[in-house]
Amino acid sequence: MKTVRTIAELREALAELRGTRAPGDARVGFVPTMGALHDGHLSLVRAARRDAEIVVLSIFVNPTQFTEASDLDAYPRQEAADAALAAGAGVDLIFAPAAAELYPQGYATTVSVAGPLTATLEGAGRGSAHFDGMATVVTKLLLAVQPHTAYFGQKDAQQLLVVQRMVADLGIPTRIVACPTARDADGLALSSRNVRLSAAERERALAIPRALAEVTARLAAGERSVAALRSAAEEILAPAQIDPEYLAFVTPHALTPVDTVDEEVLCAIAARVGAVRLIDNAVLAPAPAGEKE
Amino acid sequence: MKTVRTIAELREALAELRGTRAPGDARVGFVPTMGALHDGHLSLVRAARRDAEIVVLSIFVNPTQFTEASDLDAYPRQEAADAALAAGAGVDLIFAPAAAELYPQGYATTVSVAGPLTATLEGAGRGSAHFDGMATVVTKLLLAVQPHTAYFGQKDAQQLLVVQRMVADLGIPTRIVACPTARDADGLALSSRNVRLSAAERERALAIPRALAEVTARLAAGERSVAALRSAAEEILAPAQIDPEYLAFVTPHALTPVDTVDEEVLCAIAARVGAVRLIDNAVLAPAPAGEKE
User: Fold this and answer.
1) CB A286 within 8 A of CB A252
2) Which residue, among A60, A111, A146, A256, would best test binding to B if mutated, counting the most B CBs under 10 Å from its CB?
3) How far is residue B2 CA from its own chain's centroid?
4) What are the binding residues of A?
5) A143/B171 Cβ within 8 A
6) At CB < 8 Å, which residues of chain B contact A?
7) Which chain B residues have a beta carbon less than 8 Å from that of A113?
8) How many Å lie between the alpha carbon of A248 and the closest alpha carbon of chain B?
9) Statement: residue A293 has pLDDT above 50
10) Distances from the Cα of B30 to the Cα of B35, B77, B152, B166, B240, angstroms
11) How far apart are CA A293 and CA A277, in angstroms?
């Protein structure tokens, strides 16, 4: 496994890999990350490994998608450990550019997705610059790597929707593959930010997956009122002193709020636990009604 | 020569052409147009023909880059005549999509270039939506055609700079080739809008290339003051009742205004003649000074 720093080196390394594996039609699978790899990332790598002859992973803590300098500064960086984990999971090539490689002097271009996909939930909480920064860097990475498939986790559900929209809209010739949220044994969704939680904070944070599980269970038991489901979630969050930034019940593609769960719904939560902002979600389907099919 | 309407048909037709010509490494040259082809467009086709095995020309009157509905409505459309001209000049494939093919229901993505390249001159006159619309559609067309080279006329000098910036910034793997402005025998820069000029308006419009020629001549004679060069241009424009929207002397890459011509300068004019908005420009170099090399 090799690590390259520039787009020119990346292209050269890809050409070399293509030459050695199924020349001419080797498929490239791509996992973009901000490093601090955990098993969620590695599950994306394993999915890429199943689909593609060549697996590329990028590590780039993209400054333009951080709307808080303190969050950018605190974001964990551990490239040597990441390289070992990536190699173990079957990555062929790491692309780990410096910021100046992706945003050289005079850089002026932004890719934006308009509308509720970027204005609501994370967009409302973190500002529109967050998704502009993310969409722009993902466009640049997809054009640099030119993969057949690229892998994104369902944990960042809204990011996944924005990427799918942008790739379809611009006609970027990459298939976007959504992968399930990876969780620790205690239920907490894996996130690079989890290492910043104290033991006590982590205990409190577990109320988030428990609230999602409770909502899922109530729905399975026949509850369809979002007001009732919201109360059930809040009854679990409140004792853990978690006051969510949002606790949303929205359609899973357009992110339109709903009052009753008649079809699939995305239940998404964002909350600060201590200094750490966590997000999680579940896609809910209503229990089949007796009188319906 | 074939005309295709969808991105899927385009990809299929390109694969077929690649199969018949220099399989594996046929170079694709691309000329994006809004149709109403004239010899300016055909000079771009001839340049593409020299560089590439396969020449693709697109015809798409892009609604998102028109900031005036009347201008969009009045823009000439003559696809049958365009196809004959394109075939005669050596185009292999015309891509002429409907608006709904490029902007389907739910479309939400914009590519923007920030800063003076888009805020000044045409950007100030036509609004920022103009260059956003242009940058977005050119990105989409380049990703659809995936050409090695794409050809743009120097007449739209600012458009060329925006495209160069965006292609470099996003890392679109296409080389942008700038081609000289094509002119009629009387000096008027070729434009699809020229057909809307009456004979009398056309006569007045000739003051624009004459003003640029006068500025060029004064500069060759040693004049370096922009104030003096501007007066010389205005003395030619005023009798033709041309009150320019802008008459700018700016650096040719950053579009920074200058007061004296010490290095290469872009002199750019936009003016309405009757109902028709015309643009033209010249790249000026100062006369070599005796005491300098």
Assistant:
1) no
2) A111
3) 25
4) 34-41, 65, 153-156, 159, 182, 190-193
5) yes
6) 7, 106-115, 117, 135, 139-140, 143-144, 146, 165-166, 169-173
7) 108-109
8) 22
9) no
10) 14, 20, 9, 17, 38
11) 41
- B117/A110 CB distance under 8 A: no
Residues of A whose CB is below 8 A from B110 = 111-112, 114
pLDDT tens readout for residues A139-171: 999 999 999 999 999 999 999 999 999 999 999
At residue A276, the 3 state secondary structure works out as: strand
In the block, tokens 């959504």 appear at: A178
Domains of chain B: 2-179 (3.40.50.620), 192-284 (3.30.1300.10)
CA nearest A104 in B: which residue? B169
Contacts of A117 in chain B (CB under 8 A): 108
| SS3 assignment, position A56 | strand
**Which of B106, B110, B117 is nearest residue A112 as measured by Cβ atoms?**
B110
pLDDT in tens, A194-236: 999 999 999 999 999 999 999 999 999 999 999 999 999 999 9
User: C-alpha angle B121/B166/B3, rounded to 5°?
Assistant: 100
Distance from the B94 Cα atom to the nearest Cα atom in chain A, whole angstroms? 18
Find the CB nearest A140 among B143, B146, B170.
Answer: B170
A172·B143 Cβ contact <8 A: yes
CA distance A270 to A192: 15
Residue B96's nearest CA partner among B120, B79, B72, B76 is B79
Q: How big is the A-B interface in CB pairs under 8 Å?
A: 68
Percentages helix, strand, coil for chain B, rounded to the nearest 5? 45, 20, 35
- Cα separation, B145 vs B14, in Å, equals 8
* pLDDT tens, residue by residue, B31-86: 999 999 999 999 999 999 999 999 999 999 999 999 888 889 888 899 999 999 99
Q: Which residues, in sequence order, are bridge partners of residue A189?
A: A183
Contact A179, A43 (CB under 8 A): yes
**B253 annotated to a ligand binding site:** no
> Quick one: tokens of B183?
């002119």
Q: Is the dihedral of CA A132, A135, A136, A137 positive or negative?
A: positive
CA B4: distance to chain centroid?
Answer: 23
Length of chain A measured in residues: 293
Work out the pLDDT band at B263, boundaries 50, 70, 90.
very high
Rounded to whole angstroms, the Cα distance separating B9 from A35 reads 39
Q: Confirm or deny that B35 is annotated as ligand binding.
A: yes
CA B176 to CA B238: how far, in whole Å? 37
Whether the complex's predicted ipTM is more than 0.90 is answered with yes
Active site (annotated) includes residue A41: yes
Task: Count other C-beta atoms under 10 Å from residue B229's C-beta.
Answer: 24
Cα–Cα distance, B131 to B118 (Å, whole number): 6
